[in-house]
Amino acid sequence: EVTQASSHVERVLNTETLEVITGRSNPELARSVSDALGVSLDDEVINLFSDGELKVKIHPNLRRKEVYIIQSTSFPQDTNLMELMTMASAAKLASAEKVTAVMPYYGWGRQDRKDEPRVPITASLVARQLVSAGVDRIFTLDLHSEQVMGSIDKPWDNLYASRVLLPEIRSLGLEGAVVASADVGGAKKAEKFSLLLDGTGDIAIVYKRRSGRDVRAKAVIGDVEGRDVIVVDDMIDTAGTLTTGVQLLKESGARRIIVAATHGVFSGPALERIDQAPIDQVIITDTIRQPEAVRNHPRIKIISVADLIARGIKGIHTGESLSELIPMPGSK
User: Tens digits of per-residue pLDDT, 277-298?
Assistant: First the structure.
């Protein structure tokens, strides 16, 4: 099920100086964003040569215009990144004044540090490649690690999908719910989410021990017995960390368990693990284009971030502050 948030973007943009284009990573989201902005979308930019090489052709005149390229770098990551870079280069060569890469999902975001010998810091490498291709600004949602924004000397706006996830969770009518993190590293995110949800800051943390690829949940820190639990995270990939944590929460007495995450990566055995886990509902956003198996899954609900992205683009284009789009404790 996909729920589209209603648009409340004022039609005050100078559409003569703005162009929105997209590649093949998530054209449905790009169309929803352009509809919310009230502008046209060039979504037939990418073609292929007979040998599979990318061929980019942007159709509108871009001279002295601000170009917004909507492209997530989800699977296939390399192809989607190459599309983004070639579109940015084409826009610059066509005399675009500014090029903004709107990346609802920023691939490689977890590779944000040199955690073992002889490995790259790919998150920052990708950012530098985008700048080399002609990108003047990057706009993302829920980066896995915000420190990557410091790897380039260009503006970088990062908004939070809690703006759209919180109203959906409030609509469930949960009372006295506790917000949980599936690991210690997500404790701060869980605490902020709880403060935004009901102002309590009441959280639980699943403590786990990792040995190579083996992850074992050891204990729950916090009181979840007889309470509804909302597990929050920035993404769900293979769902291994998530489901081991959820199982321990259930064994610790949790009643209903709701999972809220921005990016539904769902690779490998993710859906099978979710099917087998004691999860009542998974709420994600449409930053990543989902196959039918996810869209039609009885326990997965997809909330659109199109309006949030449109408001971000509007703020960038008109010079307005984006601060009001960043949820703060006490806001509704």
Answer: 999 999 999 999 999 999 999 9
Please give the radius of gyration of the chain, using alpha carbons only, rounded to the nearest integer.
20
Amino acid at the residue 310: A
Q: Pick the catalytic residue: 55, 65, 189, 208?
A: 208
Residue 228 makes CB contacts below 8 A (sequence gap 6+) with 174, 175, 176, 177, 178, 254, 255, 256, 257, 258
Report d(CA 64, CA 44) in Å as an integer: 21
State the CB neighbour count (10 A cutoff) for residue 17.
12
Q: How far apart are CA 289 and CA 70, in angstroms?
A: 12
Contact between 56 and 63 under an 8 Å Cβ cutoff? The reply is: no
- For the stretch 299-331, pLDDT in tens is 999 999 999 999 999 999 999 999 889 887 755
Helix (H, G, I), strand (E, B) or coil at 64: coil
> Active-site residue 55, yes or no?
no
DSSP string, 195-211: HHHTS---EEEEEEEEE
How would DSSP label each residue in 276-306? HS--SEEEEETTS---HHHHT-TTEEEE--H
Adjacent-strand bridge partners of 203? 179
Q: Which amino acid is at 323?
A: S
The token duo for 115 is: 């955690």
Nearest residue to 68 (alpha-carbon basis) of 44, 35, 94, 34: 34
